[in-house]
Design brief:
Helices cover 27% and strands 24% of the residues of chain A. Chain A is built from eleven helices and 18 strands.
Amino acid sequence: MRAAILRNKRIEVGDIKEPEPGPGEVLVKTLACGICGSDLHVLHRARHEETGGGGIVMGHEFVGELVDYGPETTKRLKRGTRVTSIPILGRKTGAEFIGYSAINTGGYGEFMRLTEDHLLEVPNGLPTEHAALNEPMSVGWHAVNKTRLQPGDVPLVIGCGPIGLAVIAGLRIKNIHPIVAASRSPKRRELALAMGADIAVDPRERSPYEAWREQAQTGLPDPGPTLPGWLVGSGLKPAVIFECVGGPGIIDEIMAGAPQDARIVIVGLCFDEDRFQPMTGIRKELSIVFSNSFNRAEFAETLRHLGDGKIDAATLVTGKVGVDGVAGAMKELESPQAHAKILIEPWRA
Amino acid sequence: MRAAILRNKRIEVGDIKEPEPGPGEVLVKTLACGICGSDLHVLHRARHEETGGGGIVMGHEFVGELVDYGPETTKRLKRGTRVTSIPILGRKTGAEFIGYSAINTGGYGEFMRLTEDHLLEVPNGLPTEHAALNEPMSVGWHAVNKTRLQPGDVPLVIGCGPIGLAVIAGLRIKNIHPIVAASRSPKRRELALAMGADIAVDPRERSPYEAWREQAQTGLPDPGPTLPGWLVGSGLKPAVIFECVGGPGIIDEIMAGAPQDARIVIVGLCFDEDRFQPMTGIRKELSIVFSNSFNRAEFAETLRHLGDGKIDAATLVTGKVGVDGVAGAMKELESPQAHAKILIEPWRA
């Protein structure tokens, strides 16, 4: 099959062996697969030997068409059904990730094998390209769920890439407003507003924390300087700050900007060691909540949200390419001023 | 008045001017004052110019005898009453800390001025030396309160200095058991058990995380390796880990040892920049909750707990000195194998 293959920190197009479904597994034809920010990270990091020599086929945000069943399957879905799945093969010998392995190839190739038990049918009427957003949208939904928001909480979303936008979509579903968003990209600020943010600021022009503060007024009199913040609180509505940028330094930066008692939810990924000032956390009594991916229920729930039109997915797909276009698309995503999500359609000529 | 004065990273005994109570303030004779771990930190850090040239008189864990009233006071308490207070002067111009300032001298000296509004009467029958533990005990109580523990949560307390012991005391009051504690000091492990810990391990002999795991079994079958931890959880009871050591590196160390979904409550202080691995937090979906001091209600509540005998304070005072003994006591506390809390009684000859 044709695939965009990662070898030696480069994406090359090549022909590789079609995957064979094992016990409890199915074969799908990839219909669409998103390029994830983590894929960019792996692209720059993975050395030849780390990619299994032969290279890896990435892609964990996929929709496929059910083509064939392996042994020991129940065959509950018809061939031809559009399906998605968490990017995990549930094998008797252990869980294996799809898309970052030389063996379990992902949606950057024409075919994939998936675990039958994990298959979710794409709802009727939901376009394939929107269903392909389910994985990143689930990441945002999980972060919002995990935070146990209450009416009166005022969220601030730092970074409006696909994950930040997914968080905003989740906040809108939970009806938590006003939502303050921050991004340097005009395109992404526009998308943030379309997804449900009430205010979107360019952090180079205005401090997101000041914009947040304006929205978080309680109308209570200022407690004044008689007692320190840790004794009397901020006098503002509760702050929940979603870190959706990733990379070193951003957690420390948010801790420095955060108001007293803020909860900081880390949704962005930082693969490197990071530095921070514990005393800032202590003085402000901050909480840092690390959020990772989603659980199976949230993945299914997000697909229903997409199917019911609760997430306005149409605006998020800003580009589509075949396997030949993957290297170029990943380059464009390096300075993502104009893009949210680029999809790969490996069946394209 | 006589005082133990911090000058040039040294404690010297000297005579300084007795403080004068300002508007809304009272003068107290210091009866007892604890030496705090933060005082040790300041001792090694404070340069001559930072200590106001003339030096500072530390001490923010104090009990005093009410000696005199300044102007604009209500005089609601009789002279001679034993009192304590949060270590804050609430002035019209702002809050000022007591004990880390050249002007607002603390309990390392014979007399102090306090804000009348902040005075709490020491309950009848509560020995002065136990009431002097109220400040550190409140720090532990606040950390436990802040964590909103529920029955079934299994706490692990890392570090059994006065703050770790205060956390254990708070957990016992909330009836959250089993409590697993870890300390390298045999004396402190013994105190941890006396304060309410169910198990106290030496981390050089046994991993505190293994000891915790043994107590956190749910009896549920092991979820096995079919799905990763972030999808299925740990299968164990919820972990709440109290960091009561302080200093760089310990947060990262606890993150590495913590089970899936653990909440880590930072009660120890780290004044320096610190390093950590965000991906550890993300993969395990950890939460880090920074806890600082206490609020006024918690400070008062802890004094009631001490008065009602809910905290077994008798075991915690492991030494008493006059101002002449402060330098030696601080040196002993550097390797605190044998000590929990040393009190200063500045009136001692």
